[in-house]
Specification:
Elements: H1 2-5, H2 8-21, H3 29-41, H4 58-68, H5 73-95, H6 101-112, H7 115-120, H8 127-146, H9 152-168, H10 171-190, H11 193-220, H12 230-237, H13 251-256, H14 262-271, H15 276-293, H16 295-311, H17 325-340, H18 342-347, H19 354-373, H20 385-399
Length: 415
């Protein structure tokens, strides 16, 4: 308990950021989550006449009590501060499995003051909930492997955290399925108990998500259908227009500003006549056509997507902002350090516990998949930062050895 109390200044910092930066205005993406929460309060998630599955129900469920009891939105934003603090507590607990208290405290503070976290904590967005769920999953998944036998309680809790995370960031549903199939294939080959636990966690997480998938099937008739924004993201990353660099645009903005995105206006005007699910299908069809006919443009857009996910740059038709430094500075440090640690990771792979290998693979798979589908903003990559930092810390503290050479008189070789 004393160890946790040392992290309390972070909670104070988060609360102050919320109180200083929060406003009564609910706009942009916040409106969407509040709208879904209002729908849930009336007994449904989306209208059958106008199906909208742009987001999973994870965050709207969290906002539901604030709608039902007419609580101020400032309280929900302060809940974000608490969720972020609890995420850091979980991360600190995970570090303590592998390193001593003092360095664990330092690295927890390092994660706690990660600038992009502070950038979004005062808004009604999914990031703080997703970070809490990711850190909770990371803690219980690692704890599952700290004993030599299967601990069913930890396995169940890890699965629940992972399931709710997928309902909050729906792209993770496809990542979990990929991990499940990959783990099953490896298990059939190697028959390891560690792989068996990963199979169980992934499978139970998908089972927990099944009520949502049954609901989407009842609306769309499509199996394993998580959301209807995938076609839009694919369309824009496949966009062959060189000046737009695969950046995502809201279709409504395209129609309202035809001069800026003129090549797309006619296509979106035709799409408006279709139901939302058919729009998604048509966008995917056009995206695959673009990818097969303009592969070099897709590669260029993918590289730009990676830049947007990591550094909030580049964007089309957008002025450069000083806020980009919120991402460039910390993420450049993470990126460079990650590149430098690939070789020690390969050399010292037998020293690294299975659970760190597994969670790092999970985060890389998520980042890679996201970069191929959408790169709207660095908000999409924030949730894997705790996993990457855990891997970095383990390599620095448990794999590498840092020594200062003993002082020796320096002698010049004869010229």
């Amino acid at each position: 308990m004393k160890d946790k109390a040392r992290l309390l200044p972070l909670l104070v910092l988060y609360v102050l950021v919320v109180l200083f930066a929060a406003s009564n205005v609910i706009d942009h993406d916040q409106l969407r989550y509040v709208g879904f929460a209002n729908n849930l309060a009336h007994g449904y998630y989306t209208s059958r006449d106008h199906i909208n599955l742009s987001n999973g129900p994870g965050y709207p469920i969290l906002l539901l009590p604030f709608v039902l009891f007419n609580l101020p939105w400032l309280a929900a934003k302060l809940l974000n501060a608490l969720l972020l603090f609890m995420a850091i507590l979980y991360f600190h607990g995970t570090l303590r499995f592998y390193i001593k208290e003092r360095p664990a405290l330092y690295f927890s503070y390092l994660l706690g003051v990660y600038l992009p976290f502070l950038r979004w904590v005062h808004l009604l967005l999914t990031e703080e909930l997703a970070l809490f769920l990711m850190c909770g999953f990371l803690f219980h998944f690692c704890k599952l492997y700290r004993s030599g036998k299967t601990r069913w309680g930890q396995l169940a809790i890890a699965s629940l955290y992972l399931a709710y995370l997928a309902l909050t960031k729906i792209f993770l549903g496809y990542v979990i399925l990929s991990v499940l199939l990959f783990s099953i294939a490896l298990y059939l080959w190697k028959r390891g108990s560690a792989l068996k636990r990963t199979v169980l966690v992934s499978f139970l997480a998908l089972i927990c998500c099944s009520p949502y998938l049954v609901y989407t099937y009842s609306l769309t008739g499509k199996v394993f259908y998580w959301g209807n924004l995938g076609g839009s993201y694919l369309y824009w990353i496949s966009n062959p227009n060189e000046s737009e660099l695969g950046a995502w645009f809201n279709p409504q903005e395209v129609l309202e500003n035809p001069g800026q995105s003129e090549p797309h206006v006619r296509f979106f005007q035709e799409l408006e006549r279709l139901p939302s699910i058919q729009q998604d299908d048509e966008l995917k069809r056009q995206a695959f056509y673009n990818i097969t006919h303009y592969p070099r443009a897709f590669l260029r857009n993918w590289l730009a997507n990676v830049g947007r996910l990591l550094f909030n740059y580049p964007y089309a038709y957008d002025r450069q902002k000083l806020s980009t430094y919120f991402y460039v500075i910390p993420n450049m440090c993470l990126f460079v350090l990650s590149m430098l640690l690939i070789y020690p990771t390969i050399r010292g792979r037998k020293l690294i516990p299975y659970e760190i290998h597994a969670t790092t693979f999970f985060s890389v798979l998520y980042l890679g998949g996201t970069s191929l589908v959408s790169g709207v903003s660095p908000r999409q990559s924030m949730i894997i930062v705790p996993v990457l930092l855990l891997w970095i810390v383990f390599i620095l503290m448990r794999v590498l050895e840092f020594k200062i050479a003993q002082a020796q008189p320096f002698s010049r070789s004869p010229s």
